[in-house]
Write a structure and sequence with these properties.
The chain has 97 residues and is of the alpha+beta class. The chain has one domain (3-96): Alpha-Beta Plaits, CATH 3.30.70.330. It has helices at 3-9, 17-26, 39-50, 85-96, and strands spanning 10-13, 28-33, 56-61, 67-72. The chain has a four-stranded antiparallel sheet with strand order 1-2-4-3. The longest helix has 12 residues, at 39-50.
Length: 97
Amino acid sequence: MNIEEAIHIILKPYVTEKTFSLVENEKRICFLVKEESSKPKIMEAIKILYNETPVGVNVCRTVYGKKACEIRNCGEGKRSCYKDRNAIIWSLLNFLK
């Protein structure tokens, strides 16, 4: 997979009050993804775009019927690139540009 394919799989961050609390408390990030994307493809796209290996991916549907995924960035004792709230907000804002 190359960068162009990864960009087409991960559409944009999914930011609501609930997903933002997941970011702050559990170091999980939510994205809207393409309908055809599978969990392995989503994990590979995150590896390419963020240079971070996700621990797991949960896929669900939003209220509006769009496909969303929740990425678990770090497990027990693993370093995460999202260390604090300011870094998380900064990375989401950069992704939206």
